[in-house]
What we know:
Phosphorylase Kinase, domain 1, alpha/beta, 7-stranded mixed sheet, 6-stranded mixed sheet, binds molybdenum atom, binds ligand MGD
Amino acid sequence: MVSAPAAAALAQCPYCGVGCGLELKPPAAAGDPHWTTRGDRLHPSSLGQVCVKGATVGETLHHNRLTTPLWRERRDQPFQPISWEAAFEQLLTQIRRTLADQGPAGLAIYGSGQFLTEDYYVANKLLKGALGSNNFDANSRLCMSSAVAGYARSLGSDGPPCCYDDLDAADLVVLIGTNTAECHPVLFQRLLKRKRKDRQALRLVVVDPRATATSDAADLHLALRPGTDLVLLHGVGHLLLQAAAINQGFVAAHTQGFAELAALWQVWTPQRVSDLCGISEADLHQLAQWWAGSAGVLSLWSMGVNQSSEGTATVAGIINLHLVTGQIGRKGAGPFSLTGQPNAMGGREAGGLAQLLPGYRVVANAEHRAEVERHWGFAPGSIAAEPGLAVWQQIEAMERGDLGLWWVAATNPLVSMPSLDRVRAAVANCPLVVLSEAYADTETAEVAHLVLPAAQWSEKSGVMTNSERRVTLCAAFRDPPGEARADWAIFAELGRRLGFVDQFSYGSAAEVYAEFTALTAGRVCEVSGLSHDLLAQHGPQQWPFPAGTQPGGGQARLYGEVCAFPAAPAGHRFPTGNGRARLWADLPLGLAEPPCDAYPLVLTVGRYLGHWHTMTRTAHVARIVKQHPEPLLEVHPTDGERHGLVDGAMAQVSSRRGSVTARVQLTDRIRPGTVFLPMHWGATQAKACEANRLMHELGCPHSKQPELKAAAVWVAPWPRPEAST
Ligand SMILES: Nc1nc2c(c(=O)[nH]1)N[C@H]1C(S)=C(S)[C@@H](COP(=O)(O)OP(=O)(O)OC[C@H]3O[C@@H](n4cnc5c(=O)[nH]c(N)nc54)[C@H](O)[C@@H]3O)O[C@H]1N2
Ligand SMILES: Nc1nc2c(c(=O)[nH]1)N[C@H]1C(S)=C(S)[C@@H](COP(=O)(O)OP(=O)(O)OC[C@H]3O[C@@H](n4cnc5c(=O)[nH]c(N)nc54)[C@H](O)[C@@H]3O)O[C@H]1N2
Ligand code: SF4
Ligand SMILES: [Mo]
């Protein structure tokens, strides 16, 4: 607990995965709740830079907070404040009932990349270890899961092999399915700074069906048809083969599967690729030529790639190109997934998805389960052998009446999940829905029985890992409001009340972290040399960071010539069985729900610069609200004309699952045939536009990540002309 803080505090920004260092100054006057923020110049990932969200986060921490647990028997009743004692009683009763009726598989937790690593670790220990259910999933399923599956499938393990210094060293940066300028602004500014200094030193290629602030700075913008990225990547492979631009030595020494991939690439001729992607052959040739001719190629990607029914295959498509040209494991080169949330990376390290265990281990591996059971102090066989339910499978389980408890923490699925009407109906079928939240009155609270007040970032201590594998300690610097508690402390208390006193008696978050770091020894993501003390004393550190590593001695890049992954036999460059990376010859399949006569347009849903997700924080920052007052439906003028839409007027957007309305913005910055809505405005907002009522849940078979970037829709003026007369 912190009382009367006086000095400035240091922390990682709690918004995006860039993970900038922030310096927070306490309010100047007594009674003023606003902390002021500026960039921490000494933070190695951001060197003092911040964007509008980081700069205003200190204004968002106090308003509209939950201060006590709230309970209601039925959803049509108002919430009543209850004690923590009574809240734990409700949880224990329902857990015991569910275990008796349905077994451990009837329990599920849906967590978040906005958890601290300690929150993740204790939640997983509770559910997977103490309760024997692997049904812990996180909103990373909607976000990073294709990158996780793609890295593991191609390279043998998760974890971006690159670092931010690579942005300063690459000659060619390919930004694919990422609006970096708005979503990872500080990284984008770093690229722009270089570009301004010397336009020729760095080439930027953007692959996105929309023109964005990112593509505005590009040397080449490939405004491809949504869902055709894998075709494009295979097309580049075809041209690399043709130009004899393959690094034969690297392929022979460090990869497998080249013959199959080369055979597949033969088929993807420039003409075919140009037809399918809707881009010119000349642009495709240009990209391939730049790739072949650049000393350092860096690919950056995010949701335009991951949120796809072939997300994992597309990630493999990117990694393929890096492997065959030897563009990996060295300065300025590599396939670099930009993580969305501030601690999505920490979540992956702590085993925060239904198929994972801590230390980049997997549930399906008996040895991994045994190692974790021993470390956690549970009997052999405590961890179930089958991966748990990914979040959409949790929804389906509720539809069937198979879940007795759905515990949502640090995410707002009644805005962010696809097929929202179906989610709402499924959730109504679950006898106890628990929500751990920092703020009052979210969309998900509307479907909950029990709401637990969470201490958030700034009020609890713990670590986060950013996109370049850098771990920053975020120490508490404000008191939590009312009775709010840290998420990890809530999970630990429940563990003790379930009778696992030894396993869950932590004196502090530092103790939780120490237990976690010991479990990473010998793993790719090893952090056994890190502790809260070391991070407090020496600042943020990159992993791997085995015990004995000197501060600053973490590894900037993975899979290089000198440093292989920890504990690798000699000659093994990648943590696959035989040390070779795997090339994948996946056939492109396209969108799960392609446009058709009835639903002729593809709706894609993404983000605005100022707003964060479901706006529980950013809707309260005047500057940001002024910048983005309402959600806009971006439509190309030719589509606008075809469907009778007028710029600035309202339109109805409908898919097979429902309809929403939004104001039209006619713009030639979007590809004809594609329309765009932001994801931010949920049902509780005055300008509500629940885009995800329109989206479908079909996803990638490997990563189980839903295709949140594309659904078939039609659009019409609103109100309908006949209705308004
Ligand atoms: N301002 C802001 N920044 C954020 C966040 C936020 O809420 N607000 N959230 C954070 C999180 S969790 C995440 S995951 C990241 C997301 O960061 P991004 O992925 O950069 O953001 P999005 O706007 O979701 O989508 C990126 C782009 O994908 C494009 N796209 C759509 N379909 C396709 C396709 O088929 N192929 C290709 N190549 N591109 C396509 C869209 O037009 C869009 O411009 O941002 C992080 N940063
Ligand atoms: N169509 C479409 N849908 C999408 C996306 C898209 O691009 N298109 N993007 C997807 C992606 S990538 C993501 S990451 C998700 C994001 O979607 P969500 O995770 O649903 O969005 P947030 O608003 O970040 O939700 C976090 C919640 O946790 C609360 N919170 C903050 N700190 C704490 C804490 O310390 N403890 C607790 N218990 N609560 C806390 C916040 O108030 C907030 O309500 O949306 C996904 N949905
Ligand atoms: S770029 Fe991301 S991490 Fe950096 S200040 Fe902005 S939101 Fe925070
Ligand atoms: Mo995300």
